[in-house]
Amino acid sequence: MENYKFLISNYASKVDNVLSSLGNELPDYIKDNAPQKINLIAPIIIEVADHQSKRNNVIDPAILMLSCVYKIQLILNK
Questions:
Q1: Which of 32, 41, 63, 69 is least enclosed, having the fewest CB within 10 Å?
Q2: Is 41 part of any domain?
Q3: Under a CB-based contact definition with an 8 Å cutoff, are residues 4 and 40 in contact?
């Protein structure tokens, strides 16, 4: 619930920036801070690309952003 509140209050109007950062900056963050999860970068990039491709077809972009973040959390927590 805390992640939801944080994302909505800080990033709901910046969905494109968030999706871009997840695709461009998150892999470097993982490489530098969690090298044991480097093998998860490919599935994360695939998930981000899928969400980016849906960006123009959603009614509420914030829901798309949340979906992407939660999917990445599921990948990282496997």
A1: 32
A2: yes
A3: no
All residues at 6 or more sequence positions from 38 whose CB lies less than 8 Å from its CB, including other chains: 30, 31
Number of domains in the chain: 1
Nearest CA among 24, 49, 25, 28 for reference residue 37: 28
pTM of the model: 0.90
The whole domain housing 25 covers: 15-76
Q: What is the pLDDT of residue 78?
A: 84
User: What pLDDT sits at residue 59?
Assistant: 95
Parts of the chain with a pLDDT under 70: none
